Amino acid sequence: MPFSAETCVALHGGDRAEQQDRVGLFPHPKRSGMLLAVLADGMGGHSGGAMAAEQVLIRARQNFETYAPRYETPDSLLASVIDEAHLVIKLTRFTSEQDPHSTAVVFLLQQGKAYWAHCGDSRLYHFRGPSLLSRSADHSLVGELQRKGRLDAADALWHPRRNVLLSCLGSERAPRIEQGREETPLAGDVFLLCSDGLWAYFSDAELGATLHELPPRAAAERLIGLARERARGSGDNLSLAIIKLVSLPSPAPVPTARG
Where is the PPM-type phosphatase domain (predicted)? Predict the structure, then answer.
């Protein structure tokens, strides 16, 4: 069944002095039916994190503008955004006193198929109705401990080293890039990109129910409001992008001429 996409992007500074998250949504300038969403959570001292996250958006937009599906695969596009942003961020360390780093999540909708890639602990969720189909794996210390069965989800939220990343953009090591895809998305599917300033306050079930019940803008407003309440004055920057697939209306029947 054909579908269209309803979308929303949102940012909130939380209780931080500076907004170091970045999020963007870009249609392809020449090809219809293609959409790129990107989210980055910057780290690295005053203005350093913001600069790092901004580089992710710049690289995503530039690479998408020159993307030619006939000669380049979706996976290579997404990987190039993360790899090239990593190199640019890394180079800035030699020209400033900062130590900038960033996470990255990049999502591509192309010809009715969905592709994504990420590095760090910003997440990509894929819901079908209110049910979770997939969620990206956090490249963090607590994420690794959870995968090894040494930490449960509840304890991970309060672990003293929950902000330690094992991979990110701008570090000495090449970024760990994990990719996913959905070859047959359906109307009713929702893709959520978000930073840890948002997902830390919600279960998968609560996110899925909210995104299923509400259109993207109303869902974003509710999630940000609840995250702010639950942060109790100590909230991080938060950002999100919502891509909700909705059915296209059936074309009206063509009247039959009568002789």
Answer: 6-245
**Tens of pLDDT along 144-159?**
777 776 666 665 666 6
- Give the sign of the dihedral formed by CA 36, CA 39, CA 44, CA 50: positive
Q: Which residues, at least 6 apart from 112, have a Cβ–Cβ distance to it below 8 Å?
A: 2, 3, 33, 185
In a domain, 256, yes or no: no
Q: What is the CATH number of the domain that holds 49?
A: 3.60.40.10
Which DSSP state fits 86?
H
Residue-wise pLDDT tens digits, 109-136: 998 999 999 999 999 999 999 999 999 9
Task: Tell whether 257 is covered by a domain.
Answer: no
